[in-house]
Amino acid sequence: MKTYINEIKENDNVDSSFLVKEKSSGITKTGNAYLKLKLVDRSGEMEGRIWTSVENFTGTFDKDDFVHAMGKAVSFQEHLQLNINRIEKVGEEQILFSDFFPTTERDVGEMFQSLSEVIDRIKNPYLSKLLHLFWEDESFVKLFKMAPASKWVHHNYLGGLLEHTLSLVQLVLINAAHYDGLNLDLLVTASILHDLGKVEELSYHRSFDYSDEGRLLGHIILGIQKVEDKIRQLPDFPKELSTVLKHLLLSHHGQYMWGSPKRPMTLEAVMLHFLDDMDAKMNGIQQFMRKQVQEGSRWTAYHRTFEQYFYLPGFSVDMQVSDNMYETEITEE
Amino acid sequence: MKTYINEIKENDNVDSSFLVKEKSSGITKTGNAYLKLKLVDRSGEMEGRIWTSVENFTGTFDKDDFVHAMGKAVSFQEHLQLNINRIEKVGEEQILFSDFFPTTERDVGEMFQSLSEVIDRIKNPYLSKLLHLFWEDESFVKLFKMAPASKWVHHNYLGGLLEHTLSLVQLVLINAAHYDGLNLDLLVTASILHDLGKVEELSYHRSFDYSDEGRLLGHIILGIQKVEDKIRQLPDFPKELSTVLKHLLLSHHGQYMWGSPKRPMTLEAVMLHFLDDMDAKMNGIQQFMRKQVQEGSRWTAYHRTFEQYFYLPGFSVDMQVSDNMYETEITEE
Amino acid sequence: MKTYINEIKENDNVDSSFLVKEKSSGITKTGNAYLKLKLVDRSGEMEGRIWTSVENFTGTFDKDDFVHAMGKAVSFQEHLQLNINRIEKVGEEQILFSDFFPTTERDVGEMFQSLSEVIDRIKNPYLSKLLHLFWEDESFVKLFKMAPASKWVHHNYLGGLLEHTLSLVQLVLINAAHYDGLNLDLLVTASILHDLGKVEELSYHRSFDYSDEGRLLGHIILGIQKVEDKIRQLPDFPKELSTVLKHLLLSHHGQYMWGSPKRPMTLEAVMLHFLDDMDAKMNGIQQFMRKQVQEGSRWTAYHRTFEQYFYLPGFSVDMQVSDNMYETEITEE
Amino acid sequence: MKTYINEIKENDNVDSSFLVKEKSSGITKTGNAYLKLKLVDRSGEMEGRIWTSVENFTGTFDKDDFVHAMGKAVSFQEHLQLNINRIEKVGEEQILFSDFFPTTERDVGEMFQSLSEVIDRIKNPYLSKLLHLFWEDESFVKLFKMAPASKWVHHNYLGGLLEHTLSLVQLVLINAAHYDGLNLDLLVTASILHDLGKVEELSYHRSFDYSDEGRLLGHIILGIQKVEDKIRQLPDFPKELSTVLKHLLLSHHGQYMWGSPKRPMTLEAVMLHFLDDMDAKMNGIQQFMRKQVQEGSRWTAYHRTFEQYFYLPGFSVDMQVSDNMYETEITEE
Amino acid sequence: MKTYINEIKENDNVDSSFLVKEKSSGITKTGNAYLKLKLVDRSGEMEGRIWTSVENFTGTFDKDDFVHAMGKAVSFQEHLQLNINRIEKVGEEQILFSDFFPTTERDVGEMFQSLSEVIDRIKNPYLSKLLHLFWEDESFVKLFKMAPASKWVHHNYLGGLLEHTLSLVQLVLINAAHYDGLNLDLLVTASILHDLGKVEELSYHRSFDYSDEGRLLGHIILGIQKVEDKIRQLPDFPKELSTVLKHLLLSHHGQYMWGSPKRPMTLEAVMLHFLDDMDAKMNGIQQFMRKQVQEGSRWTAYHRTFEQYFYLPGFSVDMQVSDNMYETEITEE
Amino acid sequence: MKTYINEIKENDNVDSSFLVKEKSSGITKTGNAYLKLKLVDRSGEMEGRIWTSVENFTGTFDKDDFVHAMGKAVSFQEHLQLNINRIEKVGEEQILFSDFFPTTERDVGEMFQSLSEVIDRIKNPYLSKLLHLFWEDESFVKLFKMAPASKWVHHNYLGGLLEHTLSLVQLVLINAAHYDGLNLDLLVTASILHDLGKVEELSYHRSFDYSDEGRLLGHIILGIQKVEDKIRQLPDFPKELSTVLKHLLLSHHGQYMWGSPKRPMTLEAVMLHFLDDMDAKMNGIQQFMRKQVQEGSRWTAYHRTFEQYFYLPGFSVDMQVSDNMYETEITEE
Questions:
Q1: Distance between CA D133 and CA D45 in Å, rounded?
Q2: Is A321 a residue whose pLDDT tops 70?
Q3: Nearest C-alpha of chain E: how many angstroms from B311?
Q4: Contact at 8 Å (CB) between A249 and A194?
Q5: Which residue, A147, B129, B322, D163, is the most exposed by fewest CB within 10 angstroms?
Q6: Which of B229-243, B292-306, E229-243 has the lowest mean pLDDT?
Q7: Hey, are the CB atoms on C243 and B215 less than 8 Å from each other?
Q8: Does residue F203 sit at the E interface (CB-CB below 8 Å)?
Q9: Tell me, what's the pLDDT at C332?
Q10: pLDDT of residue B332
Q11: Does position C320 have pLDDT exceeding 80, yes or no?
């Protein structure tokens, strides 16, 4: 069982897995070699030291490896430090990523299943085949279930991309039904694919950052390329459909200034942009509110990206009425 | 029965109502006085002339009056002109505004009834009372049912404000249910009230334009004032609720550049802004597409306000699948 | 008599009033409870400790209270600390706000009197009555005399709002006389009222910050509401006059980007904007120069809001000629 | 005596001066040469024809010459045309520029005299000498009295530069007296010189346009050069004074976007910028209102440069109180 | 031989090829059917009429066809009109595109040969193979030689894309040699490929406009896709090389606002952007100067895209010195 | 010989020159006066102390003087400190500026010679004379050889202005030869003079910063003034040539926002702007890459002025082909 770093107290005997974020060697005043480690998990980080049998351990693991370590927590210069007796590398399959990185609170399998059911309802044969090609691509699916949706602004946790995608698809379904004449198959397909380039734009197996490809090309282009890859396997895919689908992906940021080389030119593209932007902001602000509202205040700290403060009204609980009541009535219409 | 101007042909005997847009007098080469009129209805405009008994008619009606006119359509310099034998002023109650101005295609009574039902479901007693005060204000209700939502960008027809408001309320209901922790009563109330200043910002009894108050203060401020008027009649109305409600109205344009003196600072305000903007654009583009896509092209003309072209995909009909299918499945969840 | 914190030296016996900014309790190594305070006044802040009779004092005052404290200043870890023997809460009426917060250097009573005299000269009966309603509103007047004009950019001290308002009125009087056809009553009234929303936008009884209403609505809207409140008490107040007066308040920031939802559309509004902006900048830069020009340099530090440096020419004293000479001549014309 | 073009009626015998805007020759159907002219003055333009003795007149004047013409006004194709019998070139000294171009309504001599009196009061010997060098430069003075202040936005008439300069100097004098610590000699000098580059930036002897130098360098740089020219004749002129004076000229547009390569960095520069901008806008809007408010409306047409409409309140006359009353009281203080 | 439309005079017998821009049928007053055509070539356009044997010709050609027509030019209502006796459709292979559209003045074959020689010098085997794949793709080469580089701003004539590409490659070669450490193979390859998406972005077989794909995706994305297509045929193509090459294409517009979804992040990308922008502007301004400088002026008309005027110095010829002299000296170094 | 500060180790006896950046006096615990110095050179800075014979040294040198100091390096509180036995002021002529400030790696004399040779090839007699006037101005030449080109963005080292100027001239020569119709003499002259105002804009004899004139007027205006100074000595210098030359200097930043009061209006001005901007960015990024790419990464740190990261492709060395090959081929054409 995982012991979280923020739970460890002085004199605890620790026996748990960690991620090695830094590793270097030193020499004690008495001339002996020792190893200095920085150990992390999702709850925090602490120093680790290996004072004995250094030669047995030093070559067995590296920076960025997951390890299993046993030792005792001691206090040194007002900080806890783990004096390690035994340590060994463990594979990714032996740990839970959610022990090491912030992770969606929702069930990944259920979310993926919900998306799959939406795909099954698509009637347009080309779009249906296209989506199934992605779904049958196991290495893609693995990453798609794991990737965060951004480095820090919104859905910035493992599974965040999937959570945001499902959320957007659901928003698109309910909003598109509100207007006449929209092509729902197109909209749903574009919603599912709109951010898929993020599986390559970000690196998230050890920490969240941009990959080289992510910085140089960006998720919009990476996504277009992946879609083109699959369309190439569908020789009859209509050209106009392909062009319009890519247009929706290209333009979903809405403005040149926000990184879209084209602005939305179809009704579907306009809707996709608004709902994607709204979902990202709603999630981002909700998370920021959870972390950044200080006791005794209804104001968050200053949000650097949005360049403003946010406010949580004080009456939000008392005045809330049942959502169901509204929903029931509305769906009756 | 109304005869529309664009249906009148040379030599027709015309017997119908018109709006007098211009009125002036002239002198024929033979020295006789005559009246020159410009007559309009929703289908177009034409010249009118009164050559005889001018003294009997000249004082009986004015520019901007509705009139009933009888006469014969003749061709003069390649344009049709109505030579009028009889003309008399008619009151607004004798004509249908929809014969003279572009008008919503939806039933105003039904839309208003739908909004009323939503109001009845609001549980917060203060917001409920506030909305009922508006609904009991007959002169407000009359204007609210009649006003367009803008001069030309979106819902620019009689009844457009009501149509846009109902649409936004419905969008808010379905989208708010998608997120946790939103105050639906607040959101619904703000949606209903968000554009109510437009009943005064625009003038629309003879043509669509801005009123003096509209240009000098704008619908956001005019709306805030109207809300404040009603809240004043509710002495116990909580101050924070009043402040946050007004914040939602103030910030619904989303950005300083778009005329909001504050940017959205609560989750409800963020959602209201996105859905309002989306609904305005979706309606505006749909209408623009109806009028501005030329035969043989899938592109609209250049949209001056949005500074771009829009595209109607050619496969929109063929690939459309049943909306119901999606909806049914989704609401099952 | 007030002893200022920056005057206290080691071993001084102190007997003075302070504002309690922070208050918490601790346990000494020997197991006794003590109180830790942070004491502030306009000159600085210092630590305070109550080591004895803690139970007698602890419930008698709170954070954000003004207190009278007696004790001895001792040095602890290179900082002065006040060991307090006696402490008691004092009411606001027993202290001078100017001992605790930066305060205008001008006489508040005289400034208010000058404004009152200007009001007495207004001939327009509606504007005159409107201003008198404000002047007769004692709670408003009290705040209006006390409020700063901003959190930090200009006139950021108690009485700053009044000082800025009077300054603007004087500027308006002399500049309006320079042009033909301006409505002076309107301009003077709008100048007096232009920032009155700041009495609610800012909180300034314990430190300078934005109030909730200030952040959510802003002083422009708060001011419009206050004006509307008073106008409501004057049933004959002409509608166009009310609209144009509010337009001047709304548009006085001049640009959408600076928070005005309307740009100035009348000559009076244009002038009000320029002179208000000029007065704010002149005061803000003058104050910044006083504090931020370092010895041996004529350059200020970098001004974060204005994003630039300012320069004090070195010849400013030597080359200065008598202002009077110019003034006399000009008023002769 | 000048006969204005807009006063000429059919069959009038005309005997007056005009400016020849276009000149070309033609051949009548009967094979005779004739001259086609376009004649203009400040009131309008008309066609001119010389049918006889063409060979006597053709070489005696050119396009852009002033001429004295005698002939008869006839109607041709619904337009008046002047059939000319005699025509001769006249020198600039024989005409009044104000007959041909829009001209200030104020007395140029008096305005110049007012400026001269201000200069005489400057005590700083270097600034005083600098200004006198300009005043003694006859060719400069001639152009300075004649130039407009802009092509079309404000003071766009002969004498407009002088009128704007005097207005700015007066504004500076009254506003600078309102603040402590400003260097009035510096401010007055910079005000007088701030736009002097416009005597070269614009061409205005035949029509208002930009000169080549004006377009390529702009009046700010042209003005700096002229000032540098004169300072060069004053060997003791202090370097810092010269630098700061030039800084005021350089930065008087206030922002990079408005063509100033430096933003105002001294208090004097800040004030100069605001008052110059205010005076230009006040004059520009006043003139626009005179020409562009249509009967029955209080709104101007759309102002292309300012991108908005302007409003003339309807109560401006009735509610106006005596300026003198205010002024008298204020100057007593 | 082609007879150009702007050379045709009244009563000429015409026997030449034209492009049919419009085609419709009418009825003469005597009840006979006739055909109305609008004929164009690169020199202008004229009306065409077929009065006789209409039934023989009407189905043999369509709008947007090239035709060979014989007939007589007559004058009708002050315009020339071609009364056609015989007309027949001709294939594209029978006409010269340069007779119908503006065309580069340089030799297309020679330019292509120059580019080919540069390609032959590329040593990097992957980039070399990539470029040869394009060069071996005949349908691409045909379009690449024919496409203009833009609809109207620069190189807006047939062959313009090739001309601009060659120019950019030459600029890159001489500028890259000036700096250390640049990867010339990468730069040259990116220069050759940077605008290749324009072969699909624009349509230019009948008139210059954007294609549907061009408007919806843009030449940057279309180009990336084409490059990806070819790279897919080179299985060993290094991934980083592919990423960086695409980055250069993506970022060559330099700014988000100018349609690049990424800004240049490598030295090569920075140089490519500057030289591409410079070459486009130099060509665009040179062409604008040729057409838009009016006699007697050194100023062009106002350039709508660049929002300014341009100036041709008057001394450009006289003061020009031999380029060779400079060049010789420099290359000696 | 200079001993660099970063080479000094504990217990070294030091005998070298330094720049005194700070100087103050203190009192030891035993009541003796001592001197505290901060000594700097191009490699770093260290503390200096004079404990003995203080009265002999204290008046012999000042802050910002160069000194020769002898003493011993000791360790105090983990930092090295120089205990000085002897110290004396030395003149600028006795030290090498390159020992104290970052300095170009290229040979200043050779660079200046290269520029001189270009000047000798200019045929236009006025431009030639103008440049020779600068070259004969010894005090100018001395500063021109020494000045950096900016405070920190590019060529920010002694000799940087000369290096950038020569680089730009070479770029201009090779690029101008690529286009027809450019005036090379004008372009070369403007390139040589474009940044000459920087010799006064920056101060660089003790550290790099802006001078008062630099901040108040900027190098563009300072440069124009210097050029005007010299042109004044050439009475026949043609006015249009002078105007256009100054236009090139004024507009070389390309945009209002970047501090140019005019945008480029001639072909030569357009080219000058692009190449100047490119050269500054290429140098700035190259230098940033040298210092700011961390081991194990190909990404630089975040560049605050350019607001982005830069990337050094990993294949840059391996794939590099010979520049000569390209060059040879090209110059053959």
A1: 41
A2: no
A3: 9
A4: yes
A5: B322
A6: B292-306
A7: no
A8: no
A9: 33
A10: 33
A11: no
Position C125 pLDDT exceeds 50: yes
Angstrom distance (rounded) from CA B76 to CA B79: 5
Chain-centroid distance, C-alpha E244: 28
Cβ <8 Å between D299 and B216: no
E212 contacts in chain B (CB < 8 Å): 298-299, 311
Task: Kindly report, residue by residue over D222-265, the tens digit of the pLDDT.
Answer: 999 999 999 999 999 999 999 999 999 999 999 999 999 999 99
Mean pLDDT, chain B, integer: 90
At residue D315 the predicted structure's pLDDT band, cuts being 50, 70 and 90, is low
CA distance A268 to A243: 13
3-state secondary structure chain B: CCCCHHHCCCCCEEEEEEEEEEEEEEECCCCCEEEEEEEEECCEEEEEEECCCHHHHCCCCCCCCEEEEEEEEEEECCEEEEEEEEEEEECHHHCCHHHHCCECCCCHHHHHHHHHHHHHCCCCHHHHHHHHHHHCCHHHHHHHHHCCCCCCCCCCCECHHHHHHHHHHHHHHHHHCCCCCCCHHHHHHHHHHCCCCHHHHEECCCCCEECHHHHHCHHHHHHHHHHHHHHCCCCCCCHHHHHHHHHHHHCCCCCHHHCCCCCCCCHHHHHHHHHHHHHHHHHHHHHHHHHHECCCCCEECCECCCCECCECCCCCCCCCCCHHHHHHHHHHC
Q: Tell me which chain C residues have a C-beta less than 8 angstroms from the C-beta of D285.
A: 267, 270
Whether residues A250 and E221 touch (CB distance < 8 A) is answered with yes
Residues D3-9: contacts with CB under 8 Å, at least 24 apart: D4/D41, D4/D42, D4/D43, D4/D44, D4/D99, D5/D39, D5/D40, D5/D41, D5/D43, D5/D44, D5/D45, D5/D46, D6/D43, D6/D44, D7/D43, D8/D46, D8/D73, D8/D80, D8/D82, D9/D73, D9/D80
Structure tokens at B7: 């249906």
Helix (H) or strand (E) holding D13: strand D13-27
Whether C215 sits inside 8 A of A309 (CB atoms) is: yes
Q: In this predicted model, what pLDDT tens digit does every residue of D118-169 receive, in sequence order?
A: 999 999 999 999 999 999 999 999 999 999 999 888 999 999 999 999 999 9
Q: Is the per-residue pLDDT at D333 higher than 60?
A: no
Chain D CB contacts of E298 under 8 Å are: 212
Give the span between the Cα atoms of A164 and A276, in whole angstroms: 9
Q: Touching check for E175 and chain F: CB below 8 Å?
A: yes
CB contacts of D299 in chain B (<8 Å) are 212, 215
Look-up of token digits 């008096």: D110
pTM (two decimals): 0.89
Contacts of D93 (CB under 8 A, 6+ apart): none
Q: Hey, which chains touch A, using 3+ CB pairs under 8 Å?
A: B, C, E, F
Mean pLDDT of B175-190: 94
- Are the beta carbons of F184 and F171 closer than 8 angstroms? no
Tell me which of C210, C215, C221 to substitute to probe the interface with B (most B C-beta atoms closer than 10 Å). Answer: C221
Alpha carbon distances (Å) from A149 to A204, A222, A286, E173? 10, 14, 15, 41
Residue C73 and residue B69: Cα distance in Å, rounded? 98
**Chains A and D touch, contact meaning at least 3 pairs of CB atoms under 8 angstroms apart:** no
Residue of B186, B255, B256 to mutate, testing the C interface (most C Cβ within 10 Å of its Cβ): B256
Query: Where do we find the tokens 């001709």?
Result: E90
Over residues B258-285, the pLDDT tens digits come to: 999 999 999 999 999 999 999 999 999 9
Closest C-alpha to B92, from B36, B17, B201: B17
Query: What is this model's ipTM?
Result: 0.87
Tell me, rounded to whole angstroms, the distance of Cα D61 from its chain centroid: 27
Mutation choice for E interface testing from A212, A217, A245 by most E CBs within 10 A: A217
